[in-house]
Design a protein that fits this description.
By secondary structure, the chain is an alpha/beta fold. It has 13 helices and 13 strands.
Length: about 325
């Protein structure tokens, strides 16, 4: 089977010849592995299964000051500490300027110009168009985290208005991306923390659920698979996500949920992507512990498909290179 065939079989809850996997790195972890392996191109030989394509503009980011990067929404990110994402350091949208704020153009063909060629050149991969910071995260990056959460309590007109502007943009992105021969759409939207949702389930169902139902439904209308990346303990809304049409949940963090119990409860209706501990196992375990845990995940979570094995996030810089190598050994030797 090709890696694309493995992913498709797994998402159809059929047992592939081996469990598909995807390993991504933060810049620090990548640099440590280059030093450990002595191979600057080690990542190209991992045999990952996903071909990710951005929905952003190719020139959508610019450095406006040393380590300050501005995205196409006008949001500025301080990357003096976190080189991969950064911390928002300005405010673009307020209740006073929401109506006048100009969203980027989702119809710009430059966003999708590389899709057809990339897919044609890499037919062995499952192709996924990524729309990160897709709703809640996009809103708080524009107006401020505390501002958005407070608005959900005492200024719902502003919160709904901002989320509707983002939804309109997202639906256009989805239609254009799905007009290409991709296999799925991936969304990023962190709703959780270590102990539960950031907001109450009722608030999530008022502000988030109706809009993701539209987004996921639009993807499904094009015959594509729906992926969501949402960090934290958000399993209490798994039934809602399934109802909205979700196919694949990531990052599937073992630190915040019992991944084996979750697979048993929802595995006939939902596939999982992640599951390998990045908070405990990879930084603090031993290579033998890593091998044992990864084999256990492949055997139990990977049974009957429904699983893409992966670290529960892009591998952080404190992960031990020898543990990463042990994980790769198990995944590659299936």
């Amino acid at each position: 089977m090709t890696n694309r065939e493995r992913v498709l079989a797994s998402l159809q809850h059929r047992q592939p010849d081996r469990t598909p996997f995807q390993i991504d790195f933060t810049q620090k972890a990548h640099a440590r592995m280059v030093e450990y392996t002595g191979d600057p191109d080690f990542a190209a030989r991992i045999d990952n299964c996903l071909l990710r394509m951005d929905t952003g503009l190719p020139d959508g980011w610019r450095e406006v000051a040393p380590d300050i990067w501005e995205d196409e929404f006008g949001v500025q990110w301080n990357r003096t500490i976190d080189k991969d994402i950064g911390n928002v350091c300005n405010c673009m949208v307020t209740p006073d300027n929401l109506a006048e704020y100009e969203m980027p153009d989702p119809h710009d063909p430059a966003r999708y110009a590389s899709y057809e060629k990339s897919i044609a050149e890499h037919p062995e991969f499952f192709s996924l168009a990524d729309l990160g910071f897709s709703l809640f995260e996009r809103a708080w990056t524009l107006c401020g985290f505390e501002t958005l959460l407070m608005a959900m309590v005492d200024d719902s007109d502003f919160a709904h208005g901002l989320l509707d502007r983002i939804l309109e943009y997202n639906l256009a992105i989805i239609d254009h991306a799905c007009a290409n021969p991709i296999d799925g759409m991936g969304f990023g939207d962190d709703w959780g923390q270590q102990r539960g949702l950031i907001m109450s389930p009722e608030t999530w169902r008022e502000f988030i659920k109706p809009r993701i139902r539209e987004m996921y439904g639009r993807v499904k209308s094009h015959g594509k698979y729906v992926f969501i990346h949402s960090c934290g303990k958000v399993d209490e809304v798994f039934p809602d996500l399934i109802e909205c049409g979700l196919d694949v949940f990531n990052p599937f963090q073992p630190e915040v949920m019992d991944v084996f119990a979750v697979k048993k409860q929802y595995g006939d209706r939902l596939s999982f992507y992640g599951g390998i501990s990045t908070q405990r196992l990879l930084p603090f375990g031993t290579p033998d512990q890593v091998r044992e845990e990864v084999r256990h995940l492949l055997k139990e979570i990977g049974r009957s498909g429904g699983y893409i094995a992966a670290p529960a996030h892009s591998i952080p810089g404190d992960a031990k290179p020898e543990n990463i190598a042990a994980m790769l050994e198990v995944l590659q030797e299936q």
